[in-house]
Amino acid sequence: MSQYPTPYRKPRTKIFERVALGGQTGADHGDLDAAHALGDECGGWCPKGRLSEVGPIPDKYPEKDWRTKGYPARTKANVPDSDGTLIFCHGKPTGGTGMGLILVHTLAAYPVKAEACHG
User: Fold this and answer.
1) 52-99, pLDDT tens digit by residue?
2) Interatomic CA distance for residues 53 and 24, integer angstroms
3) Which pLDDT does position 6 carry in this prediction?
4) Torsion angle (degrees, nearest 10) of CA 98, 101, 102, 107
5) Burial 25-39 (b: 16+ CB within 10 A, else e)
6) C-alpha–C-alpha distance, residues 43 and 64, integer Å
7) pTM > 0.85
8) CA distance 119 to 117
């Protein structure tokens, strides 16, 4: 038996009730992997058929099929179903990221704070 006590580990404070996103490649998969590893609830709406830019979203991600295959409808469903949105991008948001930002400003029931980081 060690003469040193087992280190005390302070319980982790939960920041989010649930991480909700569309399950696309890159940052979405990283967010879902982190939430799952921390034991946090995760999921969100994805295009019908678990569609992503590179093929079907892997089954290990708990996304739910939205009614249609389009990305805009899926994003429009995820914004009001969440308590916050975090967007990372390099340069001006374009494509789905830009559309997501517009939807946050028009549909979100939470305060919106936008910051630009350049580096």
Assistant:
1) 888 898 888 888 999 998 888 888 888 888 777 878 777 888 888 888
2) 7
3) 55
4) 150
5) eeebbebbeebeeee
6) 7
7) no
8) 7
Is residue 87 within 8 Å of residue 78, measured between CB atoms?
no
CA-wise closest residue to 70 among 51, 44, 91, 93: 51
* pLDDT for res 48: 93
Judged by DSSP in three states, 84 sits in: coil
Residue listed under structure tokens 């939807």: 103
How far apart (Å, rounded) are the C-alpha atoms in residues 76 and 99? 9
Question: In this structure, are residues 81 and 20 in contact, taking their beta carbons and an 8 Å threshold?
Answer: yes
Strand pairing partners for 56? Answer: 51
Average confidence score pLDDT of the chain: 80
Distance in angstroms (rounded) separating the CA atoms of residues 36 and 44: 13
Q: Where are the beta strands (DSSP E) in 3-119?
A: 18-20, 41-46, 51-52, 55-56, 63-65
